[in-house]
Task: inverse folding
């Protein structure tokens, strides 16, 4: 997930989803985000230092967008264009708002639509197509779902089952390493997942189960999860930071849907410092997540927005992603920091679904899932 994260990755210990300090170009005013659980909370950075007549681009993003403060200063210095960041809930909430305002957008560029929600945005004609020259530095597999370059890949990662190592070790219980294992009675009332209705990682997890068990097998699987006491919450933030026992919230559920890059975040932001990650990833449960950025159709600053897409996919910004978003950059020249590579898992064969399959079935699948799990 993203994203993930990113992915990303906690309120206090991980600092990926609830609050962030973000800088607009030309200034360094703070930005804080609200929890994705229950409601969508908007937050923005203020470009108060923008010069009269200077173009200011509004970058819309999900609440987990937490780049290094001042990251856009170089962009402003090179182009004279300021950037204002507006954060709005989980990815699902962000895309819902973008669909409702398609053609009359609230911003200029959107960061964070992923491959599970991409078809929804494309069906609503949310974006204006643009091919950045930086696609030459991307793996061709990242571009398969966007032959018309409606959006641009900006990062990738994997949504996976995470578990609290100490919880299982103290009880001498082997953790669940496959999706099928989660239906075992010894794991009853231990799993918490974000909702597929309102959460990007929650939807990615649903897609993982469909990829694993097939279009006729995932429904019985979710019935088994329901009967085994799965907890479904609105968003990733509540699932990971409140209900999960291995994160800062110290909840009572030792199994959670999160990201393959959650363990390095736990190490990097640990206070006091730790030498080993307190959480681990079940690699056979991972679903590949690609995040995109796109120019919003109807923007009055399309030429400037193209320059921002170029910047988001160039090395200055791409090298910032691993330790701020806890995702993998898409630029082949980006360098992964040692702390990230040491603790992050990159599954060799993550679960996948083709974009056209998701586009055709997403609404029906979500309706079926809701009927099974929420009613």
Result:
């Amino acid at each position: 997930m993203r994203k993930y994260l990113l992915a990303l990755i906690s309120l206090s210990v991980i600092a990926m989803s609830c609050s962030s300090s973000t800088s607009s170009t030309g200034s360094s005013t703070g930005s804080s985000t609200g929890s994705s659980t229950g409601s969508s909370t908007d937050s923005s950075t203020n470009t108060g230092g923008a010069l009269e007549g200077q173009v200011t681009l509004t970058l819309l993003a999900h609440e987990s967008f937490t780049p290094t403060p001042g990251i856009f200063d170089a962009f402003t210095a090179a182009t004279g264009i300021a950037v204002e960041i507006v954060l709005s809930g989980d990815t699902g909430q962000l895309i819902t708002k973008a669909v409702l305002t398609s053609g009359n957008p609230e911003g200029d560029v959107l960061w964070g639509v992923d491959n599970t929600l991409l078809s929804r945005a494309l069906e609503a004609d949310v974006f204006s197509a643009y091919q950045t020259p930086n696609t030459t530095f991307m793996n061709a597999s990242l571009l398969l779902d966007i032959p018309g370059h409606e959006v641009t890949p900006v990062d990738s990662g994997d949504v996976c089952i995470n578990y609290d190592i100490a919880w299982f070790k103290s009880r001498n219980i082997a953790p669940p390493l496959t999706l099928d294992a989660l239906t075992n009675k010894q794991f009853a009332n231990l799993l918490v997942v974000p909702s597929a209705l309102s959460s990007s990682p929650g939807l990615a997890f649903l897609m993982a189960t469909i990829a694993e068990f097939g279009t006729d097998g995932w429904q019985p699987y979710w019935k088994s999860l329901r009967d085994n006491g799965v907890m479904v919450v609105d968003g990733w933030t509540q699932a990971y930071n409140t209900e999960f026992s291995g994160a800062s919230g110290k909840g009572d559920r030792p199994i959670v849907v999160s990201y393959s890059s959650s363990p390095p975040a736990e190490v990097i932001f640990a206070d006091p410092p730790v030498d080993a990650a307190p959480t681990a990833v079940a690699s056979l449960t991972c679903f590949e997540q690609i995040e995109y950025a796109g120019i919003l159709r109807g923007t009055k600053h399309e030429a400037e927005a193209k320059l921002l897409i170029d910047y988001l996919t160039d090395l200055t910004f791409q090298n910032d992603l691993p330790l701020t978003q806890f995702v993998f950059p898409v630029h082949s020249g980006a360098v992964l920091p040692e702390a990230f590579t040491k603790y992050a898992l990159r599954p060799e064969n993550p679960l996948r679904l083709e974009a056209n399959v998701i586009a055709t079935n997403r609404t029906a699948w979500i309706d079926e899932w809701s009927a099974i799990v929420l009613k």
About this structure: The longest helix spans residues 355-373.
